[in-house]
Each structure stands twice: as structure tokens, then as C-alpha cells.
Amino acid sequence: VYYGNAKNGCPIRYAQVGGISPDGLLSVIALKQGINALNWNQNAQVFPKSIQQSRAVNPDFVRCEAVNVIDMAGLWRAQMTNDAIDILKQTVQVNQFFPETLHWTICLNAPGWFSLTWNLIKAMNFLNPRTVAKVEVYSNKARGQERLFTMVDESQVPSDFGGNASTLANLVAKEGGQSGASSGEKYEIKEVRVKKGKVSKEPCLVKLSANQQVSITVYSRSVSATKLDILKDGTLIQKDISIVPPPLEISGSSQSESIDFLPYTYSLEEIIVGPGVISSHMTEDEAAASDNNSTHSTLSNSNSNKIPRGCYVIAARVSNVA
After folding, report:
1. Cβ atoms of residues 300 and 288 within 8 Å
2. CB 134 within 8 A of CB 104
3. Which of 16, 25, 62, 211 is the most buried (most CB within 10 A)?
4. What is the pTM of this model?
5. What are φ and ψ of residue 118, in 5° steps?
6. What is the pLDDT of residues 124-145, one digit of tens each?
């Protein structure tokens, strides 16, 4: 989210990447179409507005550049997957159409192992050397904040980045506006991992009050099918909901590299009314995937780490009862 301005007038974009799951993200939006659309929107729509706002604050501001502040706290090595590299590459491809719009990027709270990963990313040569030269990475929290405050006043920095402004979550909510507020609409998002032969339990998808209701949608790109049970206060209310992947789009061969693993969705028909705690149980349904498309069955048993399996994002849309 964009918030505030650096001391030189550049708008600042803040991000927290520790909680991002590449597999979960690609379960909701497609790699090429979705990630590209997000980046085009950021560069062609959001960024120009931030420049206009910066010039409204400081009429003498003449740059067309932004500052990126990235908090890497909580980032795990397991998140740096092939999917994460693919997302980065797609982002870079779009950004190439908007050259010289980056003034500076600072990465804070980088885990110790990231220095090796950063060197490997640079060695892949898909990042422009001029861009790489504008990136600074800090593992030491105090040194990173000290460097940040040389470029940005503390009043322009969210409190969870060490500044005096509101939290990033509050700024995101403000940026998103108040649409849906009158109806009490909000979303609760959970990522569920389903492993073969095991029941994956999510103890609380959402907690409903007496005047609330929820509709549930499941997002995935898993080649394996699953069965979903929905419970309310521990009592089963919807059983054996079958979520089966659609036929795969194969280009020339059955190799995983030539298959588009596009996300698909399943929306539960029944709206659940509160009060109560809504939870879920999920198990893999091998027979359903095999019956639907033999390619799914073959890929589900493959050891390739390029094949998505068992990741589901459950979105619970909560609103007031009419």
C-alpha cells in the first residue's frame, strides 16, 4: 500500500511479505493473467495517482519515482519456491515497461539465509543491474530502521515498521475504503493444506454472531480432488462436498512444464447463519480426481515440485443477516 512521502518527495510503497504464500496466491489468481494484471494496475493506475498526490503535497516535486519498503520478518526459506521465482519474473517483465520509476528499495528484517538467495536471484540475470543497484537488504533490525529514517521521516512510517503512523493493516483498510461497511461485510481467509491419507482440520474458519451469516468459496489449482466437511460448533452440517479440478490444458505433451495449472473455484450453495464457530475438515479424494481426468491421477502421484497439489484457500464472506 502507498503511504506518505520520502524526504525527497517520492511516494512510498510498503509491503509485508512474511505472510505471503506463493502457492496460496496462485490458487486464487493465475500466474500470467492475474499477476500481470495486478502489476499493470499498480504501475499504470495506482503509481500515477501516488505521483499526483505527492505533487499536491509538494508542488516542487518533479520526480516520477517511488520508494519501496519491504518488511521480510517471518519469511521462511520454504516460501522461496519455484512459484515465488515465477511470480518475481512476471513482476519484473511488467515493470520493464515502466523504466526508471524506482528510486530506492529497502528490505528490512531479512532472514540470515536470504543473502544467499538474493545472490542466486541476481545470478539469474532477469533483474536489470540498475535495479539491483537500488536495492538494499538489512538483516539487523536497528541498522535497517536507522537507514530507513535517513530517507523517510518517522511520521511517514507505519508503526509496525518502527514509525509513528498507524499500522499497515489500518492503512490498507483505509485505502480500501468503507465499501460493504453498512452491511457488515468482511472476509476471513484461511489456507488449508491437504495431505494424502490425512484429515486437515481448520478449527475456526469464522466466528459468527447471532445477526451474521457466511457464504464460503474454495479456491485452488491442486491436481488432486478433495472432500470438504463443514461444521458449526463441532456439529457436522455439510458433508462430503466434492471439489474436483477441471480438465487440464496441455500443450503438446503431458509434462508438467507444458501444463497451465489455472486456479478454479467452488462455492458452497448453502449460506450458514450464526451464531456459532464455523470449522472445516478436508481429505484428499483420489477416486474423484482419477474419474474426472486421468492426467490428474498421474500428476498427483508425481514427485515433481512443479505440480501443485493439496493447497486450498477458503474465503468466508461474512455479512449481516437481511
Report:
1. no
2. yes
3. 16
4. 0.82
5. -65, -40
6. 888 899 999 999 999 999 999 9
